[in-house]
Automatic annotation (TrEMBL):
Pfam families xrefs: DUF6233
Record-given protein name: Uncharacterized protein
Organism of derivation: Streptomyces albospinus
Record region (Disordered): 49-70
């Protein structure tokens, strides 16, 4: 699947368009703007692989997708806490990295997660933590490349 391949994901029931029901691994659950919950899932399907020397052999193909509830439904007894996205105020969307000595009077820059300038990031920050760091310019300032303050003002 990805880096978490060995992780035990909870199972869920996926209702296919033709009426069949299959069990899938639920890998993530998050609400959309309308309040519906969408589940990302992985389904292993049988297939074959062809080898010139040995001929065909059975293997599996990992199909990944996403579907809203009630098309995908939790199975009683499964623990889904680990796949739910944390609340907005707890999401770590910022990186704290030491500022170059010549770049700023403060000791740190606050960056967006995808900023190319964060190779030496020390830790991740939530929105409230980033705002707290940026409140005192002697502690941290916004990165001049990714400009996190433009997003933090509206979140």
């Amino acid at each position: 699947m990805d880096a978490d391949e060995g992780r035990a994901y909870p199972r869920a029931k996926l209702h296919l368009p033709d009426g069949q029901r299959v069990q899938v691994r639920a890998t993530r659950c998050r609400p959309d703007r309308l309040g519906r919950f969408w589940y990302d899932y992985a389904l292993e399907l049988p297939t074959r692989t062809d080898d010139r020397r040995r001929g065909p052999s059975p293997t599996t193909y990992l199909f990944t997708g996403s579907a809203p509830h009630p098309i995908i439904q939790p199975i009683e007894g499964q623990d889904y806490r680990a796949i739910h996205a944390p609340p907005r105020q707890e999401r770590q969307r910022w990186r704290l990295a030491p500022a170059p000595p010549t770049a700023s009077r403060s000791g740190y820059f606050v960056h967006r997660l995808n900023c190319a300038q964060t190779e030496n990031a020390e830790r991740l920050l939530t929105d409230p933590e980033a705002l707290e760091m940026l409140a005192d310019p002697t502690v941290a300032v916004p990165c001049p490349v990714c400009r996190p303050e433009t997003v933090l003002r509206t979140s």
